[in-house]
Write a structure and sequence with these properties.
The complex is a heterodimer of chains A (365) and B (610). Chain A has 14 helices and 4 strands. Chain A is mainly α and 365 residues long. The chains are: A mainly alpha (365), B alpha+beta (610).
């Protein structure tokens, strides 16, 4: 729909998404600089990711959505194989095998799964009749859980949950029957105690317990949340100023560059800063909403809807955790937290979204 | 059309579901935003304080302790700055390596190393600062300071050392300071509102009065604690420190103690076991409070080797024992003026009443013999002679005729069996025996013989040197007195002993008889006459520790030093208008007149000739 025509070739783009994403990425670099205590090597590395990530986003916007439709299975398969490579051959860091090392940089292939699983499911359900029949439903859910368990076994519960959600979003948007949803929810709620006892590690149960009662363990697992709340609360309206956050710079706050960077921003820029930041995210959501409503076909609708919800979910899980409303789980603040894999995966996602939004249908179908 | 219909249906369903999900996230977003608003706006002040408490560590700073003066304005105790090498074990990974690095240019002795290593792990676990070297020399300090960049986890801390200018002379009266124990720390936290973290940082080391005036007047001497604010990170590493409240130095303490008289007492007792107490008659203030043998308070406060401390603690001589306030001695013959006062006041005797002293008193009830110290006795003896020559038989007879309960009351009224001093540390009030006391203590009834023994200050009757001094003071001042005290210019009420028959004339005669103890040709302390150039009234005493029934037994007990009699004297002068009253006890000194007497005269000389 929207492209620059250079006679010989055209560049497909969406001005709103590109502007807001670029803006967020650049602001994110500033935040990261403060959160990492002015560590310029962290900043330079992240800047390189941002720069090449933005280029990658533009590049991935160019192919026609048909390409993604046709090759979605291969993309997903490659992602899963990379996850296995990480599990079997990757370096073990803090007891987890999530990374594939390329010497100068390590990447987490599981991040790719959260992009290509919804794309594949969208293509799979492209022609499915409404409401989606049981066979398709079960096949899709089976696939989602397989990928979920593979990634969770690394272990990486945070990414696993996002992958689970990404698949379910597409399934839901594609027209999953309400009867099925109702039944599944009922079964889920009934089996909650069983899941609690058998599928959660003791530390995960502890994290959930402290969420409801931080006094249980003020120096253990609740410490992070307590310090995070202090950081946010002490930011007040205007914050303490760039680089002036005592909670973050005196190391009371954990993981300032990654999971808890939101608390750093809150401490240094206050409610005003947070409101502006959340405003930027809000514009991206609204733009994605608009684009998915007006997408050219069902595949594009589902992909834009699914990927934008992955983005939103990541954001909400991160903020919910940092402000003490959700249990602690490793989850980055999208486009801002340090870490190339998460950053690149979202640039890929937005590249695909822009591709779907900017290409008109060649042949009506 | 079917396909278009289907497409339309699908699109509508998609839109609805997408809107549904966005609405869900919208609601979540509002909840989140509300939570953030709560944190940053509604509870801002609470979290702001929490953030400040996180990074600011409040350090209490001990104020400079007050200086202690003697009655003439001589400084007895002050503070001198000293420097310690302090470490932060929590940041030191290898204590041995750290020591090795330091000892490349500092001489750290083995004891310091041992103490350091033994406390290192504990201090590390508690995140406590640990002193490695105490009171380092200026040279060592300079050596360390030029290399301090290499020792980020060690620093030189300044503190004030309590300095006792006469470390051995005032050990029992002024006492000493020390590190607070758990209970004292709790008190400090509560009463002075100190931050508990003070115990975990060196600052300038907490000290607290442990004994003597340092203990009694802790509140005056301490002053007000200051506050420093330290900025710390999550590991407790100090990033900066600033003064938020200056400490206020403690007030100086002006005492009634007299330096020269203490030096004189110290010299005169020459480390023999004993005590000297002297009182200024004009206001009841204590000018001398000395117990011997003594110990060095400086050594105790500023570091003493365990073996030296053990030597003091387990010494037979018991140097830590404050004999002046806690030593229990039979007053022996020195009690005789008190018994005389009682006899006259009760109408049992007067100055004309006399007995024939044949060298012993026979208890009419059972014929038991009570011997005089002089074989053959003193012959015809009136009260004047009985005091001057210290006749036992006269006082056996008088005591025999006394009512024990009345006598008990009388002795209590002149300072026995009760605390005498307002601000002394751990004074022993002892007791004055009477029938119910004996029944409780020994489960035995009171014999007439018990009263007879009390008449010469033996038997169950015991007293402390300070009680003897107060008693001498009361006699010297004719029944008028103030409670004893050590702080100068303490406001006190004058007290007066009520008598029935004992008159002003009797006071005059009592003084006269006591003057004759020294000045008379037959007085028991006439050897002291030449040692002074003013007139002194006195009464000697020789306290028997073992009652020998006959002379042979007595000379046997003399062979054992510790069983020899205690020598006592009470004295006051110059007569006729006495200014000071003094009591002296020399343990196992044998003779009140010739052993305790010279000590009393030396002390009086130093006080009067000043």
């Amino acid at each position: 729909m929207r492209y620059l025509d250079f006679k010989r070739f055209s560049i497909y783009y969406d001005p709103y998404l590109i502007i807001f994403i670029t803006l967020l990425s650049i602001i994110g670099l500033f935040f990261l600089y403060s959160a990492s205590d002015g560590n310029s090597s962290v900043l330079i590395k992240q800047s390189i990711f941002v720069f090449f990530g933005l280029i990658l986003m533009i590049v991935l916007s160019q192919p026609d959505p048909q390409i993604y439709y046709s090759y979605s299975g291969i993309f997903l398969l490659v992602s899963i194989i990379l996850v296995f490579i990480a599990i079997f051959f990757g370096p073990e860091i803090n007891g987890a095998k999530r990374w594939i090392s390329f010497g100068f940089v390590s990447l987490q292939p599981s991040e790719l799964c959260k992009i290509f699983l919804p794309v594949f499911i969208a293509s799979y359900l492209y022609g499915a009749k409404l409401p989606i029949n049981l066979k398709n439903t079960f096949l899709t859910i089976f696939l989602i859980f397989i990928v979920f368990f593979i990634v969770s076994s690394q272990p990486d519960l945070g990414t696993g949950i996002v992958i689970l959600l990404s698949g379910l979003y597409v399934l839901f948007l594609a027209g999953l029957s309400w009867t099925f949803i109702g039944t599944a929810l009922a079964i889920f709620i009934i089996s909650l105690p069983f899941l609690w006892n058998n599928f959660l590690e003791p530390f995960q149960r502890q994290r959930i317990a402290t969420l409801f009662n931080p006094d249980l363990d003020p120096f253990g697992s609740a410490w992070n949340i307590t310090q995070s709340k202090i950081a946010i609360g002490s930011g007040g309206i205007l914050g303490k100023g760039f680089g002036e956050g005592t909670q973050s710079h005196l190391n009371f706050l954990p993981e300032t560059e990654t999971d808890f960077i939101f608390a750093v921003i809150a401490e240094e820029f206050g409610l005003v800063g947070l409101t502006i930041l959340m405003g930027l995210y809000f514009f991206i959501f609204i733009r994605c909403f608009y684009l998915s409503i007006n997408a050219r076909d069902r595949f594009c609708r589902l992909v834009i809807g699914g990927l934008s919800l992955v983005f939103i979910s990541t954001l909400f899980i991160n903020i919910g955790m940092v402000i003490g409303l959700l249990p602690v789980v490793g989850m980055p603040l999208p486009l801002i937290s340090q870490g190339g894999s998460s950053l690149i995966s979202f640039y890929i996602a937005f590249g695909i979204i822009i591709s779907m939004a900017s290409h008109t249908k060649l042949v009506p179908r | 059309m079917i396909e278009i219909n289907e497409t339309y249906k699908e699109k509508t369903s998609f839109n609805k579901r997408l809107i549904f999900l966005y609405v869900v996230f919208g609601i979540l977003g509002i909840v989140f935003y509300y939570q953030i608003f709560n944190l940053q706006i509604s509870n801002y002040s609470e979290y702001e304080i929490a953030a400040k408490n996180n990074k600011n560590e409040e350090i209490s700073v001990q104020p400079l302790r007050g200086i202690i003066y003697d009655r003439n304005g001589e400084i007895l105790v002050n503070n001198i700055p000293t420097f310690d090498l302090i470490t932060k074990p929590i940041f030191i990974d290898d204590s041995n390596d750290f020591l090795l690095k330091l000892s490349s240019f500092l001489e750290i002795d083995e004891d310091e190393k041992k103490v350091f290593l033994s406390q290192f792990e504990k201090a590390k676990a508690l995140n406590k600062e640990l002193t490695l070297m105490q009171s380092i020399s200026d040279e060592d300090r300079a050596k360390f300071l030029v290399r301090s960049h290499m020792f980020e986890n060690a620093y030189v801390g300044k503190r004030y050392l309590r300095n006792y200018l006469y470390p051995e002379i005032f050990s029992h009266s002024i006492g000493y300071v020390g590190r607070p124990n758990e209970d004292e720390l709790d008190d400090m936290y509560e009463l002075k509102g100190l931050n508990q973290k003070i115990n975990f940082t060196y600052t300038n080391q907490l000290i607290v009065g442990k004994t003597g005036l340092e203990f009694t007047y802790e509140d005056i001497l301490t002053g007000e604690f200051g506050k420093n604010l330290r900025e710390v990170d999550a590991r407790g590493r100090t990033l900066g420190e600033e003064i938020s409240k200056e400490s206020k130095a403690g007030n100086n303490l002006y005492t009634s103690l007299d330096l020269q008289s203490h030096q004189a007492a110290h010299k005169a007792l020459n480390n023999r076991k004993g005590a000297v107490v002297a009182i200024d008659i004009k206001d009841g203030s204590i000018v001398t409070l000395f117990s011997s043998p003594t110990f060095s308070t400086n050594q105790l406060v500023n570091g003493i080797l365990q073996k030296d401390l053990d030597k003091l603690l387990f010494s037979q001589e018991k140097p830590f024992f404050n004999r002046a306030l806690k030593g229990r001695y039979p007053p022996a013959s020195s009690i005789k003026p008190a018994i005389a006062m009682f006899g006259i006041d009760q109408g049992l005797i007067d100055w004309n009443f006399s007995i024939f002293d044949e060298g012993f008193f026979t208890l009419p009830e059972d014929g038991r013999i009570y011997r005089d110290w002089k074989e053959g006795g003193h012959g015809d003896t009136n009260l004047f002679k009985a005091i001057t020559q210290s006749s036992n038989t006269y006082f056996f007879d008088l005591a025999y005729r006394s009512d024990i309960n009345q006598l008990n009351k009388h002795l209590l009224s002149i300072g026995f069996g009760d605390k005498t001093c307002i601000d002394c540390f751990e004074e022993d009030k002892v007791f004055v025996p009477e029938p119910s006391w004996k029944m409780n203590k020994h489960n035995f009834g009171w014999f007439k013989g018990d009263t007879v023994n009390m008449g010469v200050g033996q038997g169950y009757l015991v007293s402390t040197p300070i009680q003897l001094a107060k008693y001498a003071y009361i006699i010297a001042n004719k029944g008028n007195f103030y409670d004893l005290s050590l702080k100068k210019d303490l406001v006190k009420n004058e007290k007066k002993i009520e008598f029935n028959k004992f008159s002003n004339d009797d006071w005059f005669k009592l003084h006269e008889s006591m003057v004759n103890v020294i000045e008379g040709n037959t007085g028991t302390a006439r050897s002291l006459r030449e040692k002074k150039d003013y007139i002194v009234a006195a009464k000697t005493g020789t306290a028997e520790l073992v009652s020998g029934d006959n002379r042979e037994q007595y000379s046997e007990t003399r062979l054992d030093d510790s069983l020899r009699d205690h020598a006592l004297i009470i004295a006051f002068g110059p007569m006729p208008n006495p200014r000071y009253a003094v009591s002296v006890v020399v343990e196992n000194g044998e003779s009140g007149g010739s052993v305790a007497g010279p000590v009393a005269i030396t002390v009086l000389n130093s006080l009067i000739q000043e």
